[in-house]
């Protein structure tokens, strides 16, 4: 199919997927530090679209304004299931209409207007309103496959040009990258209630031969040392997802700081 035969929606989809900033956001969804670094680099000369709840006074519509004076804008926000608010930015205009229609967004009661801001300035603006209580963070492209939700410390890191792992997005942890995983210095042993819950859950699961609890740190996916449970299975046929969920549920509420853990599976000997 040549370019002339591409349907308008397909052409638009291709345009969006080829947008460097959107691509960088999608790569950062894996949570790994090296992929977040791609987003940090893309932010240097990128712009975000900000949906306006109120007009910006004394700013001509449709014109680019350069100013050294502080700019006050009132953006729309979205709420999480607990009622916490999140600032909203978009990487491409095509992502705006679906959620704007769903939430009936407008500007001063009229048609929705967007403000284009340099990404670094937009992130600083978000930081100024995120208090982690009423406003908990920032979400890019909400409700789309290109959505990325960021908490305050993550927004601050991006604004400062530093890449850090997005721990909430890191998935599919295995023991195959042990070369990059460091055993941390010994700390206090895990709480007795943690060990007791883990032992009981492990004994109740079929296919688990044994397990080992360590304190590990992997700079690609971790911000600080934390507990890791390495599980040895009897065979490849065992349901790993079920085992991981069961063990995680069993120790919930007993995990010591920083409050999360990894569950990995050791290679099975042939």
Q: What distinguishing features does this structure have?
A:
270 residues; alpha+beta; 4-stranded mixed beta sheet; 11 strands; 22% strand; elongated; disordered N terminus
Write up what this structure looks like.
The chain is an alpha+beta fold and 270 residues long. The chain contains eight helices and eleven strands. The chain has helices at 8-17, 20-28, 33-42, 96-103, 119-129, 152-159, 192-204, 240-251, and strands spanning 47-54, 74-75, 77-79, 85-89, 113-118, 135-140, 148-151, 182-183, 208-217, 226-233, 261-265. The protein has a four-stranded mixed β-sheet with strand order 3-4-6-7. The protein has a four-stranded mixed β-sheet with strand order 8-9-10-11, covered by helices on one side. Strands 2-1-5 form a three-stranded antiparallel β-sheet.
Please write out the topology:
Elements lengths: L7 H10 L2 H9 L4 H10 L4 E8 L19 E2 L1 E3 L5 E5 L6 H8 L9 E6 H11 L5 E6 L7 E4 H8 L22 E2 L8 H13 L3 E10 L8 E8 L6 H12 L9 E5 L5
Radius of gyration: 23 Å
Helical percent range?
A: 25-40%
Compute the separation of the termini in Å.
48 Å
Strand tally is 11
**Could you tell me the strand content as a percent range?**
15-25%
Largest sheet: 4 strands, mixed
The H-and-E topology, N to C, reads as: HHHEEEEHEHEEHEHEEHE
Overview in brief:
With 270 residues, this protein is an alpha+beta fold. It has helices spanning 8-17, 20-28, 33-42, 96-103, 119-129, 152-159, 192-204, 240-251; strands at 47-54, 74-75, 77-79, 85-89, 113-118, 135-140, 148-151, 182-183, 208-217, 226-233, 261-265.
């Amino acid at each position: 199919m040549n370019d002339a035969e591409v349907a308008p929606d397909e052409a638009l989809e291709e345009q969006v997927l080829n947008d460097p900033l959107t691509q960088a956001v999608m790569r950062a969804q894996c949570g790994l530090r090296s992929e977040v670094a791609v987003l940090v680099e893309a932010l240097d000369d990128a712009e975000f679209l900000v949906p306006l709840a109120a007009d910006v006074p004394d700013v001509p519509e449709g014109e680019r304004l350069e100013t050294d004076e502080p700019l006050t804008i009132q953006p729309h926000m979205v709420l999480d299931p607990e009622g916490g608010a999140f600032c909203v930015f978009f990487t491409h205009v095509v992502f705006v209409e679906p959620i704007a229609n769903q939430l009936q967004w407008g500007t001063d009661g009229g048609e929705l207007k967007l403000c284009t801001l340099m990404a670094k300035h937009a992130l600083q603006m978000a930081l100024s309103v995120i208090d982690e209580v009423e406003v908990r963070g920032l979400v890019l492209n909400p409700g789309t496959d290109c959505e990325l939700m960021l908490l305050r410390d993550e927004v601050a890191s991006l604004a400062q040009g530093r890449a850090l792992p997005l721990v909430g997005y890191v998935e599919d942890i295995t023991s195959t990258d042990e070369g990059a995983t460091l055993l941390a210095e010994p700390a206090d042993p895990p709480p007795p209630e943690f060990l007791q819950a883990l032992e009981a859950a492990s004994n109740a699961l079929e296919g688990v031969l044994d397990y080992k609890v360590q304190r590990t740190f992997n700079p690609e996916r971790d911000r600080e040392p934390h507990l890791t449970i390495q599980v040895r299975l009897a065979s490849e046929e065992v349901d790993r997802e079920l085992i991981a969920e069961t063990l995680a549920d069993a120790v919930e509420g007993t995990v010591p700081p920083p409050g999360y853990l990894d569950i990995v599976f050791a290679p099975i000997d042939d």
